[in-house]
Design goal:
The protein is α/β, with parallel strands linked by helices and 410 residues long. The chain is 28% helix and 20% strand. It contains 13 helices and 14 strands.
Length: 410
């Protein structure tokens, strides 16, 4: 392909786009959509437009976008929100999967299904707990996704990837799904290949983010049987654990899955590598003496008696301590959406400066932990900028996958 036209769904502030455009000039975003429900302000969409322009950008509820308004594209990407993906749950008040409302996975499904010229590829991202949800039917949601994509003619491989395992500055675990339509050369290549070798060595994800085949374990084969409604009702009905491991592939509803370990010996980036000089940090990010005790309490271990007024009973609350301040010589913990603001928190990052002062991370530093360009979200409040990074992905993972896909096509 001379170019790969891309549609970016649930675009946020453009993490997929940054990663793909860093990977190759062949990636060409022809349409994007970002809509934040239940709020008047559309801050993420405004940042996206500010950085990439308003041409071919949609700030509309994706469920209301007609398929004819989405341009023809080769690659569909998106970090879709994690919800309940059951088909059967609301059957009594819907028209099956096409009538299921409020579940954004089915909007991805609709676009893949109804496009006259089906996208050759899809690259999707979600939280790693997707593989084991819901608690009542471990792995059901993921099984529905794999089966539905398989029914649309896609081979799909997946990996749970911790960005820090591949030298990036944040410990952020996410599941990535890479799909290939039956009309593509890669689909045909996989069909004639040794499945395990593709997953462990030759596949797009394996080339992008290598694994140690000698340490693979708990391999499993699964057949996804029945229509989507039956699968939704019966998959792993009495299972305690999800049958899906952190790596795998589905071909014609036949699943091979295995637990794998990363294999990386390159450069590793730490918090120290991304922080700005102390003299450039605004005073508002430093921890004052009045709040220090509260910070120490929230970060510390706990074994204390508590009382539940609502249910009128006492209990012992225990909680392990956290490293405080955060170690500079290692990757950061996962950024959360509540990272911004000066109020003490167990989960916000706090580092010690060269002068011995304690401070929170700045929005620019949070952007660097996700490998975004400096000040990509500038112009918004510090709290909102932190929220964006808590929702974003580590763009370096997408860059690696993007390069690997180009290599497969070449």
């Amino acid at each position: 392909m001379k170019k790969i036209d891309v549609v970016e769904l649930f675009a946020g502030v453009g993490g997929f786009r940054i990663g793909l455009e860093n990977a190759s000039k062949k990636y060409n975003v022809v349409w994007s959509n970002q809509w934040e429900p239940a709020t008047k302000s559309q801050d993420a969409s405004e940042v996206y437009v500010k950085r990439f322009g308003e041409k071919n950008h949609s700030n509309e509820d994706i469920s209301k976008v007609h398929i004819k308004d989405i341009p023809k594209h080769n690659l569909l990407v998106g970090g879709f929100p994690c919800q309940d993906y059951s088909v059967a749950k609301s059957l009594s008040r819907s028209k099956g999967i096409t009538g299921k409302k409020g579940v954004l996975w089915w909007e991805i499904h609709r676009i893949l299904k109804d496009s006259k010229s089906k996208p050759e590829f899809c690259l999707l991202e979600n939280v790693d707990r997707l593989l084991s949800s819901p608690a009542s039917q471990r792995g059901r949601d993921f099984a529905i996704m794999l089966a539905s994509l398989s029914d649309l003619g896609y081979i799909v491989e997946w990996r749970i990837i911790n960005a820090a395992d591949y030298g990036m500055p944040q410990r952020r675990r996410r599941v990535f799904l890479m799909g290939y339509h039956k009309n593509t050369s890669i689909h045909k290549k996989i069909k004639s290949a040794d499945v395990k070798n593709w997953v462990f060595n030759d596949g797009t994800l394996a080339k992008a983010l290598p694994v140690d085949e000698s340490k693979s374990q708990f391999s499993n084969n699964i057949k996804l049987e029945g229509d989507l409604i039956k699968l939704s009702e019966s998959f792993n009905k009495n299972g305690t654990f999800s049958p899906f491991q952190n790596c795998g592939i589905v071909i014609d509803r036949k699943v091979f899955t295995s637990k794998v370990s990363p294999n990386y010996n390159g450069k590793r980036t730490t918090i120290r590598d991304i922080i700005i000089p102390e003299k450039e940090v605004d005073e508002k990010f430093f921890i004052d003496k009045k709040s220090l005790e509260r910070w120490q309490y929230l970060k510390g271990s706990k074994n204390e008696k508590r009382f539940n007024k609502t249910r009128n009973f006492s209990y012992t609350y225990t909680e392990g301590g956290m490293i405080f301040p955060d170690a500079l010589n290692s990757p950061s913990r996962t950024i959360i959406t509540g990272e911004g603001g000066s109020s003490p928190s167990r989960f916000k990052h706090v580092i010690k400066t060269e002068s011995g002062k304690l401070r929170r991370l700045t929005p620019l530093e949070l952007e660097r932990l996700n490998l975004f360009p400096d000040n990509h979200t500038a112009g918004c409040t510090d709290i909102k900028r932190a929220f964006f990074m808590g929702n974003a992905l580590v763009t370096g993972v997408i860059e690696r996958i993007g390069k690997s896909l180009i290599s497969q096509l070449d």
